[in-house]
Specification:
- There is one protein chain.
- With 128 residues, this protein is mainly alpha-helical.
- The protein has one domain.
- The protein is 45% helix and 8% strand.
- Strands 1-2 form a two-stranded antiparallel ribbon.
- Helix 2 packs across helix 3 and helix 3 runs antiparallel to helix 4.
- The chain is globular and about 40 Å long.
Length: 128
């Protein structure tokens, strides 16, 4: 686990054992998501990060490719969570869940570039 991810775990203390997209945390698979991308000037610092499981991080970038609006809304929610210096509260988790379900509803039958189902079963296994 990278030092910045370890520092974020110490600050945000996820008592719920969930990452910021509502997936169960396995510490060895936890990643740092740049809220503002590096290519857009975003730095790799705590104030620009979100704690996501590796596969959830991949899923977030699938969402970015397919629905930039939902991706941007999720990142706005991450910014708010980041500023409060504690894990997402129940209302934030519900808002994130709503955004994910909206994406899944509108992309349920979509295929990826290899002809496989876009929304894998593991993406649907959240705490909700």
């Amino acid at each position: 686990m990278k030092e910045i991810t370890r520092a974020m775990l110490h600050i945000y203390k996820p008592y719920s054992d969930l990452d910021w997209l509502n997936y169960k945390i396995v510490k060895k698979d936890l990643t740092f998501h740049h809220i503002v991308k590096r290519v857009d000037g975003g730095r790799k610092e705590i104030s620009n990060g979100a704690l996501l499981m590796d596969f959830a991080h991949n899923y977030l970038h699938i969402i970015e490719d397919r629905d930039k609006h939902i991706y941007d809304l999720l990142n706005k929610e991450f910014m708010i969570i980041n500023r409060q210096l504690h894990e997402p509260d129940i209302e934030q988790r519900e808002a994130i869940e709503f955004m994910l379900q909206d994406f899944e509803y509108h992309n349920a039958d979509e295929l990826n570039s290899k002809g496989k189902i876009l929304i894998k079963e593991k993406y649907l296994r959240r705490w909700y």
